[in-house]
């Protein structure tokens, strides 16, 4: 059974592909505009160069005035530098000269020489020939508008990515909050529904226990354990959505108690072992009722994976000075690598029956309520799986 939540990865992929297409289209269209504007500026500089050439050989003062006012002065955006054939600077236009060097000819020439080197990397100079055989060079570079336009799509994509990220996190937070409300509502309703029949069962248990007909009957003790178990289950559901009370508990003893209860209620062909690599009096901050629930869910999944036959080994160890690790290893079917990231999603199950909520609930209890971690430490198909619980001391 594949959870509906597993489809979110496909949806994310679709959004990423759409975003990439939009980004590629934006960059392509902007590059077309940049190319056209660059050609337009090149034509403008070529016209500027032709105007200079005509001025040099113009027979009429009226024509020189016209060229000066209508052609040369019309270029107020493209930076240009006019040099002789030895690249000695003769004139410049649209070059930003800082005020602190405006009166220093040497510094201005040094600045313009650096600008020429930059211009050479963008465009080849335009040659302006003289009648005497000598030439002048017109160096130029992209205007500020063209330079900005080259970077515009990337800035646009960054802004879009920032807004998309904000929207994604807001949506994810909203969805998690909604899921939490569903979890809490379902848990509270379940606890409420269990309350009435549980009260009746407790009354019947006390009645049967006091009856002489059932005196010294071992079934009465087992019935009492099951009634107590129902109380614990009701308490667990009541704790969902509330801030659980965490106490310093002997984790080894708590784990052994949980396994002892399970062992009498599952297949006898499943062999449990509980070991630790630290002193038995080491404690961890847990809510016993919820922690038992986690152990129960993981172990029941392990039993199903082993088809009721195999070993479940639980080993407790210290992780530094502040954490305890609980490793639960089974000899079941194992989990394919492609499925490891989905085993904790609500609805994921390999069984024909079941809602696929056990591991999802276990992870929520450890990660959210105990501020610990629950993850798949190791798994190999055909050999088994190890789940690791990390708790704070």
TrEMBL record:
<keyword id="KW-0547">Nucleotide-binding</keyword>
<keyword id="KW-0597">Phosphoprotein</keyword>
<keyword id="KW-0808">Transferase</keyword>
<feature type="transmembrane region" description="Helical">
    <location>
        <begin position="12"/>
        <end position="34"/>
    </location>
</feature>
<dbReference type="InterPro" id="IPR003594">
    <property type="entry name" value="HATPase_dom"/>
</dbReference>
<keyword id="KW-0418">Kinase</keyword>
<dbReference type="InterPro" id="IPR036890">
    <property type="entry name" value="HATPase_C_sf"/>
</dbReference>
<dbReference type="InterPro" id="IPR005467">
    <property type="entry name" value="His_kinase_dom"/>
</dbReference>
<keyword id="KW-0812">Transmembrane</keyword>
<dbReference type="Pfam" id="PF02518">
    <property type="entry name" value="HATPase_c"/>
</dbReference>
<protein>
    <recommendedName>
        <fullName>histidine kinase</fullName>
        <ecNumber>2.7.13.3</ecNumber>
    </recommendedName>
</protein>
<keyword id="KW-1133">Transmembrane helix</keyword>
<keyword id="KW-0472">Membrane</keyword>
<keyword id="KW-0067">ATP-binding</keyword>
<feature type="transmembrane region" description="Helical">
    <location>
        <begin position="151"/>
        <end position="171"/>
    </location>
</feature>
<dbReference type="InterPro" id="IPR004358">
    <property type="entry name" value="Sig_transdc_His_kin-like_C"/>
</dbReference>
<feature type="domain" description="Histidine kinase">
    <location>
        <begin position="189"/>
        <end position="393"/>
    </location>
</feature>
<keyword id="KW-0902">Two-component regulatory system</keyword>
<dbReference type="GO" id="GO:0005524">
    <property type="term" value="F:ATP binding"/>
</dbReference>
